[in-house]
Amino acid sequence: MARLLEGSSIALLSDAGTPVVSDPGLVLVRQALNAQVQVVPLPGPSAAIAALVGSGAPPHSFTFVGFPPRKSNDRKKWCLDLAAETRTLIFFESPHRIRATFRIARECWGDRQVTICRELTKIHEELVTRPINEHISTITSPRGEYTCVVWPPLQSFPVAVPLPERSILQHEFGQTTNKSGSRRAAVKEMAKKYGLSTRDMYTELHKSP
Predict the structure, then answer these.
(1) Are 14 and 25 in contact (CB under 8 A)?
(2) Domain at 47-156: CATH architecture
């Protein structure tokens, strides 16, 4: 702050992505604003926004809630406080607590759809969308920080998630079948994603071209 008040121009950089987003940069920004020093934000990498864009979750209204509390009792209260939230939720979590957090979240939110993201914009980038219960059983060796996008309850979607063209839908079905190991599981997963019953999803997939 002393350098700023002397008239220096200072750039605030962070190796954790955009400063202020789950980063202590907020302290310096507020001090600068309180001292009538102009703060110029520059667009940069943000895991929260990248995850939202890549998840396919409704982006019309969303909220970023940072990291869940470390202690399990506090984490449960955190989940309960968010249980009635109808917007898409975005939060960060460490690999050491991701499964425990999902177990508590399942109790409080039900088996909601969640997209988990790791290594965003890197070679080993990973985005996986599944119900919470499936994440609990498939995350066996968690590594790296997770960005989680929690889809809102189906009834709270502002608009239905539109079905893509038939060729794209068929391609997605093939990929989902390979990932889940069975056609039935793939139909169920896609029906949940697009807000359809399993029967309606099956009908869409088998429509004549």
Answers:
(1) yes
(2) 2-Layer Sandwich (3.30)
Dist. CA 119–CA 205, nearest whole Å: 32
For residues 104 and 76, is the Cβ–Cβ distance under 8 A? yes
Residues whose CB is less than 8 angstroms from the CB of residue 135 and which lie 6 or more positions away in sequence, other chains included: 102, 114, 116, 128
Phi and psi based region of residue 144 (left: phi greater than 0; alpha: psi -120 to 50; beta: remaining): left
Q: Which stretch of 27-36, 55-64, 84-93, 126-135 has the lowest confidence by average pLDDT? A: 27-36
Domain assignments of the chain as residue spans, ordered by start: 2-34, 47-156, 166-205
Question: Residue 165 is which amino acid?
Answer: E
The kind and range of the H/E element at 27 are helix 25-34
pTM above 0.85, yes or no: no
